[in-house]
Amino acid sequence: MSPRRTASGGMVDRSRSIRFSFDDRFYVGHPGDTLASALLAQGVTLFGRSFKYHRPRGVIAAGVDEPNALVTVLRGDAREPNIPATMLEIHDGLTVVSQNRFPSLAFDIGAVNQLGGRLLGAGFYYKTFMGPVLGPLKGTRFWMFCEHFIRRAAGLGRAGAVADPARYERMNAFCEALVVGSGPAGLMAAKQAAAGGARVILAELDPRLGGTANWSSETIDGMPAADWAAAVLAELAAMPNVRLLPRTTVWGYYDDNTLAALERVTDHKRTGCKGEPRQRHWTIRAGRVVLATGAFERPLVFPGNDRPGLMLASAAERYAVQFGVLPGRKIAVFANNDGAYRSALALREAGASIVTIIDVRSDISPAARDLAARAKAEILAGQAVVATEGGKQVSGIKVQPFDAATGRLSGDVRAIEVDCLAVSGGWSPVINLASHAGAKAVWDDKMQAFMLPPATERWTGAGACAGEFSTGEALAGGAAAGSWAAGGASASDPVPEAGGTVLDIAPAPVFEIPAAGKAFVDLQHDVTADDVRLAHQEGFVSVEHLKRYTTLGMATDQGKTSNIPGLAIMANALGKQIPEVGTTRFRPPFAPVSVGSLAAERYGEVRPERLTPMHDWHLENGATMYSAGLWHRPMIYAKPGETVDQAYVREARTTREKAGIVDVSTLGKIAVQGPDAADFLDRVYTNMFSTLPIGKARYGLMLREDGFAMDDGTTWRLADNDFLMTTTTANAGKVMQHLEYLLDVIWPDLKVHVTSVTDQWAGAAIGGPRAREILAACVTGTSVDNDTLPFMGIVHGEIAGAPVVICRLSFSGEMAFEVYSGAGHGTHVWQALIKAGKPFGLVPYGLEALGTMRIEKGHVTGAEIDGRTTARDLHLDWMLSKKKPFVGSMMMDREAMISPDRLQLVGIVALDNLPLAGGAHIVERLDRDTPRDSIGHITAACYSPVFRKHIGLALVRAGKSRHGERAFISDPLRGHFGPVEIVSHHFYDPEGKRLHG
Amino acid sequence: MREYSALSLIRNAFNGNRDWQPVWRKPDPKPAYDVIIVGGGGHGLSTAYYLAKEHGITNVAIVEKGWLGSGNVGRNTTAVRSNYLLPENNRFYEHSMDLWEDLSHELNYNVMFSQRGCLNLAHTPAQLDDYARRGNALRHEGIDSELMTPSEIAREVPVLDMSRTARFPIVGGLMQRSAGTARHDAVAWGYARGADRLGVDIIENCEVTGFLRDGDRITGVQTSRGEIRAAKVAVAVAGHTGPVMKLAGIDRLPIESQVLQAFVTESLKPFLDTVLTFGMGHFYVAQSDKGGLIYGGALDGYNSYAQRGNLPLVEEVMSEMLALFPSLASVRVLRSWGGVTDMSMDGSPIITTGPLPGMYLNCGWCYGGFKATPASGWCFAHTIARDEPHPLNAAFTLDRFYRGAVIDDKGQGATPNLH
Amino acid sequence: MIITCPYCGPRDLSEFAYQGDGNRKRPDQASTNQKAWNAYVYDRLNPAGEHNEIWQHAGGCRRHLAVTRNTLTHAISKVAFAAAAGPKRSAARRKQGKAG
Question: Where are the alpha helices (DSSP H) in A29-119?
Answer without folding.
Answer: 35-41
